[in-house]
Amino acid sequence: AIAKDALMTQPVTLSTAGSIAVIEINNPPVNALSQAVRQGLLDAVVQADADAAVTAIVILGAGRSFPAGADIKEFGQPMQDPHLPDVIDRIESCSKPVVAALHGTALGGGFEIALGSHYRIAVPSARVGLPEIHLGLIPGAGGTQRLPRLCGAAMALDIMFKGTPISAQDALAAGLIDRLAEGDLRQAALIYAAELQTPRRSREATSGLADKAAFEAALTDAEETARSRMRGQMAPLKIVQCLRACITQPFADGRLFERDCFFECLASEQSKGMIHAFFAQRASAKVPEASRAEPRPLNRLGVVGGGTMGAGITVAALNSGLPVTMIERDHDSLARGRANVEQVYDRLIAKGRMSEAQKSDIMARYQGSTQFADLSEVDMVIEAVFERLDVKRAVFEQLDKVLKPDAVLASNTSYIDIDEISSVTNRRKHVLGLHFFSPANIMKLLEIVVPQSAADDVVATGFALAKILGKIPVRAGNSPGFIGNRILGKYGDCAAHMMEDGATPYEIDAAIVEFGYPMGLHAMYDLAGLDIGWDNRKAAQGKRNPAERYVEIADRICERGWFGQKTGRGFYLYPDGARIGAPDPEILALIEAERAKKSITARRFTAEEIMARYLAAMVNEACEVLREGVALKPSDIDVTFVHGYGFPRYRGGPMNYADSYGLARMLDDIRRYGQHDPIFWQASPLLVELVASGQTFNDLNKG
Ligand code: 3H9
């Protein structure tokens, strides 16, 4: 018999409650399934199964969650026994009923343990899912074989393709869990286990396979999605193949096939890139200021400006439960600001994704005013007015007069110097910059711009806000364009040079899309509005180095009033409000005329050369951003470009990509390009230094 509370292999414990064996996994913070956990789990299951006094087994997670998956830190190292699929098979083959008791996030291998268990009970707040796709992987511990047998292909594919966890309620409705636990989970699981007589094995389930035609149709749809929307990625197609095995092969063969596919994905650059992106995202939230100071309380937010950005920020805050006071200069503007906010919810209602009641609940947190004095109680204000220094300064002067002494003041700006804004206040240390990306309620990236004068707890509050809003924060120094737009400026220039030298904007965009971006640079310019860049270029006139190469093509386009999608044409044509542009022969003629003016004979660029130059310009400028301390570490630049600029996540980000391309090779490229344009192509001293010392960006991340 098992001694009560006997401690087995840490971090898994086996104890008994009456005749029920309780196996508890305790590996903080998320009970990841490291080798010690797998071994402990296997030992505990074997022991409990062999114990004649035990009638049923409960598996649960200590702390905040049932296991959230395999231990990602072990990926890339040799796999050690016991393997998770084998542990789960052993659980499934138990002679007594096994109950998985779920709370928190039962994800990946954790959910696969639950699927291999005979019965599943969960607290109402639990969520379950198979997020492997976000790591460039497929579920590799039976998930692709057991889940479809329980719920059919359509739902299984939805869970695996989206990778987002579903609620316990949805899982219950789909038969993926059997019961919701009211009250204490352990107690509820013990009661449930005591009722159960016989094991029930997912591998033998047939309900999901019953409608073979529907199963096949779901596979065909998914394959189409994998080839179009998820183009370039390996895991989605592998998932489809594994699901096909559910209807063409016995379980055991399907499991082996899944295993091969899993290892193939694990060995791929894609998965390495995505795992890098996963850890980079977590590392970007760890900044020195936040380790030195606690954030200030954040219970109420003020937003100044109800335009596109102000309304988007307001929606993001309202959605996360924060009450918001929006300030506009007069009643009409305020009405428009409120309408901009409501419009977001009305669209959701129209699509059937929100009810009027839910909208009213959210809007109850919204307050509008034309009086700055109404901000006297807020903890933080985000100014989101027109992107002009004098306008922003006028707002900050007002804020300085009315805010409580410890309120945080933030300016939402994409390029204005925060010091120039804060200098009109008597509270510079309470000021920081927040660069939201449009649409602010959707885009995840948030550049947190830290001026020299900002107090540590102000910076910590900026990061706390990002967490509340569900944004991915990156710390940026207060330098023109911060991290993202500064680097974009550079590779944008590189693209313009290639265009003048012979590549069409359409060839450049095609190469970028082929590389894995959702859209090309010129399509993106058209979407954002070409007038923005034009205004910036006009403002920079006179400040530019006259020896620097300057391409006038975009200016010529803007002079015609072609500002992109909103005017029906830019680099592309958008007839009848089309969202996807068509190539424009007039643009090609205009480019040719510009070349002729400079006596440039167009030459051909391969897609490979386009990308080599484009990425070299990006990475070289990123090195300067690092050298100047504008970004703290290479992985922060990766996070910025993956989450704000469409860089394919499966490549990890530009710095991770550069490591795999080879820094010495990239430096050689830059020096070769520099023979023709030594001003633009100056190798960053940081890149030179890394190559000389044989280091990579990843070494800098670790350091
Ligand atoms: C898999 O299961 C493969 C199987 O199918 C087959 C195997 C054969 N491993 O995100 P947080 C760390 S693939 C190691 O800030 P939250 C994380 O790095 C896996 N570490 O918290 C962080 O560490 P630190 C499938 C992990 O509350 C800390 O935990 N599963 C893992 O915002 C807190 O994380 C997934 O892909 C892990 N699996 O979110 C789930 N997970 O403090 C991935 C987390 O040092 N994880 N850490 O920075 C998540 O989605 C979120 O972390 C979670 C918690 C929702 C669980």
Plain-language structure description:
This protein has 703 residues and is of the alpha/beta class. It is built from 30 helices and 19 strands. An 8-stranded mixed beta sheet has the order 12-11-10-13-14-15-16-17, sandwiched between helices. It has a 6-stranded mixed beta sheet with strand order 1-2-3-4-6-9, sandwiched between helices. α8 (212-227) runs antiparallel to α9 (235-248) and α9 (235-248) packs antiparallel against α10 (251-266). The protein is globular and about 90 Å long. Mean pLDDT is 96; it is low at 3-9. (S)-3-Hydroxyhexanoyl-CoA binds at residues 29-30, 32, 68-73, 84, 105, 107-109, 112, 131-132, 135, 137, 139-141, 143, 282.
Amount of beta strand:
5-15%
Overall mean pLDDT stands at 96
- Measured distance between first and last alpha carbons: 51 Å
Structural class: alpha/beta
User: Gyration radius, to the nearest Å?
Assistant: 28 Å
Largest β-sheet summary: 8 strands, mixed
Fraction of helical residues: 40-55%
- List the ions, cofactors and other small molecules found in this model: (S)-3-Hydroxyhexanoyl-CoA
Oligomeric state of the chains present here: single chain
Shape from CA axes? globular
- Give the neighbour order of strands across the main sheet: 12-11-10-13-14-15-16-17
Total DSSP E strands: 19
Number of DSSP helices? 30
| Low-pLDDT segments, ≥5 res | 3-9
